[in-house]
Write a structure and sequence with these properties.
2 copies of one chain form a homodimer.
Chain A: H1 2-17, E1 21-22, E2 28-30, H2 31-34, H3 39-45, E3 48-49, H4 61-66, H5 69-76, E4 79-81, H6 86-95, E5 104-113, E6 125-134, H7 140-155, E7 161-167, H8 168-177, H9 185-193, H10 195-209, H11 217-227, H12 232-243, H13 247-265, E8 273-275, E9 289-295, E10 304-309, E11 323-329, H14 330-339, E12 353-355, H15 363-375, E13 380-382, H16 389-398, E14 403-406, H17 409-413, E15 417-421, E16 427-430, H18 432-441
Parallel strand pairs in A: 1-5, 7-8, 12-13, 12-14
Antiparallel strand pairs in A: 2-4, 3-4, 5-6, 6-11, 7-9, 9-10, 10-11, 14-15, 15-16
Helix pairs in contact in A: 1-7, 7-13, 8-13, 9-10, 12-13
Chain lengths: 442, 442
């Protein structure tokens, strides 16, 4: 827990330094708010809350007898647990739009829930740390979020991370240039998204299932080649040749060039930047730049993701507000730091001092000693029972407490305490104030 | 959010100073773990999660046709959202018992969910801050938690709080002494618990409904008198006279006397302590001392609660482990501090500096300025668009940003920046490093 706290505090520090404002939203959203935002598979994975009380009372008998789970759900569940932080954020922005100052920059560190089968890097409940900038089309917003990836992950000392960059408009042009009908673009991205899991043959199968011409595979092979380009600019140059003259895609490419150049200018090492023409991102709401952060040798996919959405608030009735956001996957970052043993040594959040309780001792004097330690800024406790000293020392040892104060009859008579150093093993008699000074100096 | 963060950090500081260890548990528990722990009304208020997938497939047709919501729930819902932090903690302790050091002291700051009708001081999702000490029968554990009430609420500067104290064993003896059959004790506490809401006549009605002899009302009147006792010891003396010679109750009374005396000795002012013979606490698992913290003039009940449970882990198969715990209701404390305008002035977590973006200006120089501010420890951002300066100044003003840096053509030519003080209104030209120093000194 101390490590997670440190991770959140570190990211919070980076976000606030860039002027992001902290918000939280409730765990529950209306089920209808969430449905249809994450694709069909996503809808299946949303955790729905059963209505309270006699939830069947008003359900239609025919519906009930149909035994159709999907159809019944809407009748017996109004609320659901949030699936990500982006859709609740969009709802929040629309509801609060008269109170907010735009462009609005917020960060949010909260749990999300997904009904995935648990596995390596997959949890049913996990924490996302999101930054979004909404109400501007400026590509400096993308730049700021790439900086935040870099500064956040560097501050956490995540080893060997690379920020993958691409743009949905470029993907669209590439798919069209390879003969994929515009109507099949979404299917094409789903297939491309699976490439790293299923390989080129797998993608070929996906194309077949989804009625995408097999001739379009040649482009995927070309793009696989570009992935290996020695640096971002080389990748961009090769992509430019494949794109043709499609205006939106040319503009996207120029923006990506600027983003890479300015990120480098702002101190992001080129080796952390990877232009990946096969980065697709599953979620439908992205319309421009897309990001993912990967770690070499990690036993799972990305640790962060994000992108530009031209119209996320449109689904809640406020059209044409562009934004861009990123999300840090705290639990996967935690897994990476565990995997490489990469946590810093954190100050001891255990106990500094234990005061032993003596059989037929002076409990009030012992309470006073513990209190004096706390008033001096140390964490301390009085052992709650007058148990055998051996047992009390074992407890101190098990909890990793270094200092134990003992107030026996002799000590009380001479107005001192015994201070036992559980690490060094020796024990001194000295006045309480000196004992506290000694502990503070240790 | 900054205020909530400060509240949690403050309580965390107090808990850690007393040697409590931070844990978290998942939001979901098995529904069967939670059912039957919070009384019948509590069971109704637990939020149940609908099973994922085709949850009706295996449901018995007869059960479905019965339209019995309660009976169907177990068939279509395996998981539920935690209702408090105590039961999940008990489950955690039983599961981890071989890894933990006892007595085990933990704190936990997490949300809980209850299907209450929302209202003043009642939320469907709220945050509890719990401290528990488990594995000791020592009354010093009660003392430490009373100290934590006092230190935590004093650190938050909650005005006019009083810690109400009582003991379930005393309640039991008082009910028996007034002629309530032992089998009606639970009903009696439910009725007494409603006293502050429904008055003495309301309690009389409750007694009638629950078959409790009307003669038992005399005791309630006596106890109402004791509530007004001038100090805790006076209340305890009067209670002693009503108790008779019942051994468990006499012991409880002696322990309460010790608790009050030691709390005063440890620095809790007597005016913060209130022995209340009518404090009952709804939850069934309390068996000894019980606590509640109330605030004068608050528009709702208690802001904190707690008590001793002789056998909370028994329901999970590990019998005879005694513990005591308290819970701070963060949302109600927040309401109180809002109500009395009692929040401290917190350091600005907004934005220290905004760098304006000039039309046909030097974006990279502007980026560098914002970055230099951050490197000097200030929070800063570059306005994302080269909008009219008037608009940018309005944005800075709306966000409460005091300092704006402008890098016009003249400034760039002379290697300075313009620093505008949005509070004072004046503007200086000076080198960037001096501008940063000036902001830091402000």
């Amino acid at each position: 827990m101390a490590r997670r706290q440190w991770m959140f505090d570190t990211l919070r520090g980076v976000f606030e330094k860039h002027g992001f404002v902290h918000i939280q939203t409730p765990s529950f959203e209306n089920l209808s708010t969430l449905t249809g935002k994450y694709g069909e598979e996503g809808d299946q994975l949303i955790f729905k809350i059963l209505n309270n009380g006699d939830y069947l009372a008003k359900v239609d008998d025919v519906l009930l007898a149909s035994k159709n789970s999907k159809a019944l759900t809407a009748a017996i569940s109004k609320k659901a647990l949030r699936y990500d932080l982006t859709v609740p954020f969009a709802r929040f922005v629309v509801m609060q739009r008269n109170e907010l100052t735009f462009p609005f920059k917020r960060y949010q560190i909260q749990n999300v829930w997904r009904g995935d089968r648990p596995g390596k890097g997959r949890y049913q409940e996990f924490t996302q740390c999101d930054c979004d900038i909404i109400g501007t089309e400026s590509t400096l917003a993308e730049l700021e979020l790439v900086q935040i990836f870099h500064e956040g992950l560097s501050a956490l000392d995540v080893p060997g991370f690379r920020i993958a960059l691409n743009d949905r408009r470029i993907l669209q042009a590439l798919s069209e240039a390879s003969g994929v009908p515009a109507s099949s673009f979404a299917d094409w991205t789903v297939a491309v998204d699976k490439l790293d899991k299923v390989g080129l043959e797998g993608v070929a199968k996906e194309f077949e299932i989804r009625d995408i011409p097999a001739s379009a595979l040649g482009m995927i092979e070309n793009l696989l080649g570009i992935r290996q380009a020695p640096d971002p600019q080389a990748a961009l140059d090769k992509m430019a040749k494949l794109l043709g003259e499609q205006a939106a895609a040319r503009e996207a490419l120029t923006e990506l060039e600027h983003l890479v150049r300015r990120a480098k200018f702002s101190g992001v090492p080129e080796s952390h930047l990877h232009v990946d023409p096969l980065l697709a991102r599953g979620l439908d709401y992205y319309t421009g730049a897309i990001f993912e952060v990967l770690v070499e040798d990690a036993p799972f996919g990305s640790i962060c993701g994000g992108g530009r959405y031209a119209d996320l608030t449109g689904i809640f009735g406020w059209k044409g507000v562009s934004g861009v956001g990123v999300s840090f996957g705290a639990d996967r970052i935690e897994d990476v730091l565990n995997h490489v043993d990469g946590w810093p040594v954190l100050p001891n959040v255990g106990l500094d001092v234990m005061v032993a309780q003596m059989e037929s001792g002076d409990v009030e004097a012992e309470l006073t000693s513990a209190q004096a330690c706390r008033e001096a800024g140390l964490s301390s406790e009085l052992y709650p029972d007058p148990a055998k000293l051996k047992k009390q020392f074992k407890y101190a040892n098990d909890r990793g407490v270094r200092w134990v104060i003992v107030l026996g009859e002799d000590e009380r008579a001479s107005n001192v305490v015994s201070l036992k150093d559980m690490v060094g093993g020796h024990q001194d008699q000295l006045p309480l104030t000196e004992a506290i000074a000694k502990i503070q100096a240790s």
